[in-house]
Amino acid sequence: MLEAALIALALLCVALGIVCHGLYRNQQRMLAEQAKCDAVRDARIKELGKRLDAYLTGSIRMGEELHELRRVVAPLPDKLSQIEQRDPSSLSFTQAARLVGMGASVEDLTQSCGLSQAEAELISRLHQSKAQ
After folding, report:
1. Does 118 map to a domain?
2. Does 65 reside within a domain?
3. Domain residue limits at 80
4. 89 — phi, psi (to 5°)?
5. Contact residues for 104 (Cβ-Cβ < 8 A; gap 6+)
6. What total of structural domains would you count in the chain?
7. Calpha distance 60→69 (Å, rounded)
8. What per-residue confidence (pLDDT) applies to 17?
9. Which of 47, 80, 91, 121 could form a disulfide with 113 if both were Cys (CB 3.0 to 4.6 A apart)?
10. In this predicted structure, what is the pLDDT of residue 4?
């Protein structure tokens, strides 16, 4: 009877060892899968970080360019006023703009307002783009 109990205990220990070994292998497999998932996640985070850096760099450059454009454009209204007041005997640029709004051509502006070809083209393009 003692012998049978020892045999049963020995078989139980062997079965327990087999179960423990199976659990250990399962845990090792799960750890390997988790390591693969972690590597994929880390690579994705690194890629997203690079993309974010690229977007931030682009935004900074765009901001700098906007700042530069503001600096360049800021004196233009004053310069336009000076040009308009330059020759009071001729039609003003505002009147030339009105003529463009009524469909006047560049040649019409040069003849009727006394503008140079470049000035007439500039007024025409500026005010045609506003109308569109």
Report:
1. yes
2. no
3. 76-131
4. -75, -25
5. 96, 112
6. 1
7. 14
8. 95
9. 91
10. 92
